[in-house]
Amino acid sequence: MGLVAALMAEPAYAGDGFTFSANSRLRYEAVDGQARAATNPSDQWTSLRTVLHGDWKQGPWQAVGEVWDSRIWGANIGTAPTTNEVNTLEPVQAYLRFDAGSLLGKGSKTTLQAGRMQMNIGSRRLIASDDYRNTTNGYTGVLAETSLKSGWNATGFYVLPQTRLPDDTASILDQHVALDKESLSSVLWGGVIAHQKKGNPYLAEASFIHFGERDATGHPTKDRSLNNLGLRLGVDPRAAHWDLGAEGIYQWGSTSASTAANAAHLDVSASFLRAYAGYTFKAKWKPHLLAEFDRASGDAPGGTYGRFDTLFGMRRADLAPSGLYNAVGRANIATAGLRLEVTPSARTDGFIGWRGLWLANSHDAFSTTGVKDASGASGSFAGHQVDLRLRHWIMPKHLRFELDGVWLARGRFLEAAPNGRRGDTRYISLNLTAFL
Q1: Mind listing the pLDDT tens digit for each residue in 371-402?
Q2: CA separation for the pair 296, 124 (Å, rounded)
Q3: Are 134 and 84 a contacting pair, CB within 8 Å?
């Protein structure tokens, strides 16, 4: 079928018309013995995130609008909230999508999308729609996706990341409303190609993603120009089978040493590696035991900048919660761990995991704590982390409870570094989400 004929063909579509959905999550968080530098040793706050979603379909066309309202109460200046917690009355999504059908042959599917949108690209470790965080990442631009009957899938995009506003502490604490902005001063583009046949557990994926930024009025930046080349191989979990995989990302380009106008210009050479192996037992609770290793490079003394930048990636699925804890992310970290995941019923699931935490480079700040010893004299062991999550549907499809907890037993580095603290960190998060 030719291109014109494919575009003109209009097959029967199910589900034409308008649909509406909504969800609202109430969360209480508390932390004691905070690991992050320049924050209160102990703190707590309550947040509310409400999402309203409208979806209109007619033939191959689809229009989507989505408003997020993210608020917080009980915060104070000592552990100042950021736009990761507050973004009020924001139209995060407003896009038009066209289903071009079998444009590339029988059994294929191609879609084109333009407007404001959320994105989950590949493994989501560089570009993700963050679900644990109280706010999400939004992008404005174009996205094209295509899949072939043979199992090949490709995604390409050119977007402008939205800057969440307002972003000053006073306005955030007062829950002020301001429309997020996008501009050509911040650009994200790239593509992913993957192969996985339907019903086949084997996945192969390659990606290239570029992020570029420059100073905008009132928003100085580090003028990052980062290229990211990634490769991922994996075998999906199955009952009574092993699953395993690995992902590597090499990052290069340039950045400034700080946001100052006269900051030194540095070449970038950084990397990320993840490897894992697991086994799913054939039992009622579907226990899945997982061994995993993650390493994101840190910055060493010298003229080349080596700290890996995870850009807009998620962290909860791999490493730890964000929110008030927010201490362990994909930067200057080497960590190995074990995790046990269980699903007792269709209404309940959970996991518990342990990780040993080290600095990839002892001269750089550990992960996302801001704790640093530039001399490297405080060593590289950051501690042991125990992380758990329990989710239960109180009313299936309508009301879900979630408990998240972390215990961080600090190692020598987090206690001995010049801006470190002594004592363990304890974090708890209680969540109740209603769905309409």
Answers
A1: 999 999 999 999 999 999 999 999 999 999 99
A2: 15
A3: yes
Q: What is the pTM of this model?
A: 0.93
Sign of CA dihedral 355, 360, 362, 366: negative
SS3 of residue 269 by DSSP: strand
| pLDDT at site 2 | 45
Measured CA to CA, the distance from residue 364 to residue 374 in angstroms comes to: 6
Q: Which residue has the tokens 């994996």?
A: 234
Question: What are the DSSP E strand ranges found in 162-264?
Answer: 186-195, 202-213, 225-235, 241-256
Give the end-to-end CA distance of the chain in Å, rounded to a whole number: 42
Tell me how long the chain is. 436
Domains within the chain, CATH numbers bracketed: 17-435 (2.40.160.100)
CB-CB neighbours of 365 under 10 Å: 21
CA distances from residue 51 to 22, 82, 432 in whole angstroms, order as listed: 6, 19, 14
| Distance from C-alpha of 86 to C-alpha of 109, rounded to nearest angstrom | 37
Burial of 325 (0-12, 13-18, 19+ CB in 10 A): buried
CA distance 130 to 204: 24
E strand spans, 257-398: 265-280, 288-296, 304-305, 333-345, 348-358, 381-395
Residue type, 314: M
Collect all residues with Cβ–Cβ distance below 8 Å to 313 and sequence separation of at least 6: 124, 125, 126, 127, 128, 330
β-bridge mates for residue 312, sequence order: 127
| Percentage of residues of the chain with pLDDT beyond 70 | 97
Q: What does the alpha-carbon distance between residue 409 and residue 341 come to, in Å, rounded to a whole number?
A: 22
Question: Which residues touch 86 (CB under 8 Å, ≥6 apart)?
Answer: 70, 71, 72, 134, 135, 172, 175
Share of the chain above pLDDT 90, in %: 90
Any bridge partners for residue 395, and if so which? 399
Nearest C-alpha neighbor of 304 from the set 264, 262, 360: 264
Nearest to 271 by CA among 320, 233, 309, 244: 309
Distances (CA, A) of 142 to 49, 117, 119, 179, 329: 27, 9, 11, 20, 29
**pLDDT value of residue 14:** 61
The residues pairing with 119 across neighbouring beta strands, listed in sequence order, are none
Take residue 47 and report the two structure tokens written for it.
Answer: 């947040």
Query: Using an 8 Å Cβ cutoff, are 221 and 179 in contact?
Result: no
Alpha-carbon gap, residue 186 to 215, rounded angstroms: 9
Instruction: From 124, 120, 56, select the one nearest 94 (Cα to Cα).
Output: 56
Segment holding 173, helix H or strand E: helix 169-173
